[in-house]
Amino acid sequence: MARITAGVGCSHVPAIGVAMDTGITEQPYWKPVFDGFQYSREWMKKNKPDVIFLVYNDHCTAFDASCIPTFALGAAAEFQPADEGWGPRPVPVVKNHQKLASHIAQSLILDEFDMTIMNEMEVDHGLTVPLSVMFGEVAPEDEWPCLVIPLAVNVVQYPAPTGNRCYQLGKAIRKAIESYPEDLDVMIFGTGGMSHQLQYKRAGLINAEWDQQFLDMLTEDPVKLSQMPHVEYLREAGSEGVEMVMWHVMRGALNDEVKEVHRHYHVPASNTAVGHIILENVAA
Amino acid sequence: MPEKDYEDIPGTFVFDADRSREGYHLNQFCISLRLQKNRDAFNADEETYLDKYPMTPEQREAVLKREWNRLLELGGNIYYTSKLAANDGINFQNLAGLMTGMGVDAYREMMLNGGRSPDGNRYKSEWEDKE
Asked: Model pTM?
């Protein structure tokens, strides 16, 4: 049977991808950002999954304003890195575990989560930056070390799905994965955040204390954390900080009890606080 | 309609359905610049390219003049307007430097020093003296 082995929370700041793609990760501005992922890359090698279920948001790349699905599950065979306005990232094509993705879509819909199914989709930095920071540089002609099932969540147009809905979806994703007969190790990523505001006169907002508390509660009291109303994210963590609701999908898919094996927090990467956490399931 | 509990955050637009309706054609224009062929066409003749998008005269003027805050005030969303900025060679951080009125260098310095504190920046009432 397939199983969920661990969860990863991770920012997906586009400038982090640019730093890797242009080879400037050793510069003083960027070095502290990447140093915090050294442990994670070793950990990924030791715990390499067969599949990553990756929760992210599309930044008006696959979905412009004409179509805004709240939850869109990638069911295509593969996903090309998109041109987001400055050329596609030089990273490999993302390959899906198509049968597992279809199985999850079916299971979720019968579980009353009405997913949008994507049989064609390009993926942007929201999906590829987390893969890059966790695996390191991978040349476009090579392959990512594992298959990836993308789940795109709308966080661009208000309202994003609630934290509670995301947390419950995580539980349903776990149920779907655990009912798949193939013997597979699946890791789940929740990406985005942490505190940041990209727009208008309050741009540059960072709330390190709030972010650290979010990370603490993710392990200790995820149910309470999932009840946080949107306005608190918007006010305390910046208008774009609301994308942290996606971390609840990851947390919902794990055991109630988890062990935090790694945490990394750094300000700034461009406009954003970089947050990263690795959570392993504790045997029930 | 219930009151919007997110309208009292200073210096911030929450991109809800009302803003999305107002900014639809503006945002669709901006996102078209994601693709190189469209960037080429726009850069060759901005006015003609803009004719394809039925935006308001105010929105069109804000595009031509690159009035970054005005674009947001007229229903633009940052993930869209950033594509116009990218076309002009302005990245997210430098765009924020322009929108905050701080300038690129002072903004970058603020971020290196931990960013803008939430203290004094949570409620519009806290900004009344500033604006």
From this structure: 0.97
Residue pair A176/A224 in contact (Cβ under 8 Å)? The answer is no
Could you report the per-residue pLDDT of A6-57, keeping only the tens digit for each? 999 999 999 999 999 999 999 999 999 999 999 999 999 999 999 999 999 9
* Residues of chain A contacting residue B86, judged by C-beta atoms under 8 Å apart: 84-86
What CATH fold (topology level) applies to the domain A3-281?
Protocatechuate 4,5-dioxygenase; Chain B (3.40.830)
Task: Spell out the residues 6+ positions from residue B90 whose beta carbon is closer than 8 angstroms to its own.
Answer: B98
| β-bridge pairing A258-269 and A272-281 | antiparallel
B89: nearest CA partner in chain A: A86
Domain that holds residue B83: 17-90
Residues of B in contact with A11 (CB under 8 A): none
Q: Does residue B12 fall inside a structural domain? A: no
Query: pLDDT per residue over A225-259, tens digit each?
Result: 999 999 999 999 999 999 999 999 999 999 999 99
Structural domains in chain B (count): 1
